[in-house]
Amino acid sequence: MRIRPPSAVIAGLSAALLAMLIGGCAREPEVGRTRFEAMGTLVEVTVYGESPETTASASAEVEALFHELQQRWDPWGDGELGRLNAAAGSAPELPVAADLAGLFDRAAVISRNSDGLFDPAVGALIRLWAFSSEELLPTAPPDAEQIQQALAASQPLYQIWQPATRKIRLGPGAAIDLGGFAKGVAVDMAIDLLRGRGIDHAIVNAGGDLRAIGRHGDRKWRVGVRDPRGEGVLAAIDVEGDESVFTSGDYERYFVYQGRRYHHIIDPRDGYPAQGAISVTVIHREAGVADAAATALFVAGAQDWPRIAANLGISQVMLVDSSGTIHMTPEMEARTWLIPDPKPPVNIQRLPAP
Amino acid sequence: MSATQQLGMEQAMSGTHREDRLVAGFAALAIAIHILEAAFPSPLPGIKPGLANVITLIVYLRHGLRLAIWVAGMRILVGSLLVGTFLSPTFLLSATGAVAAMLALALVGTIGGRQVGAVGLSVVSALAHMSGQIAVAYLLFIPHPALLNLVPVLLSASLIFGVVSGLIAASVLQILSRRAGEPG
Amino acid sequence: MADPGPETTREHSAPARPLIRAGDILIVLLAAGLVGASFGAFWGPRGQGEMALISVDRQPAFELMLDQDSTVDIQGRIGTSTIMVDGGRIRFLDSPCPGRYCVHSGWLQRSGEVAACLPNGIVVEVIGGEREYDAINL
Question: pTM value?
Answer without folding.
Answer: 0.72
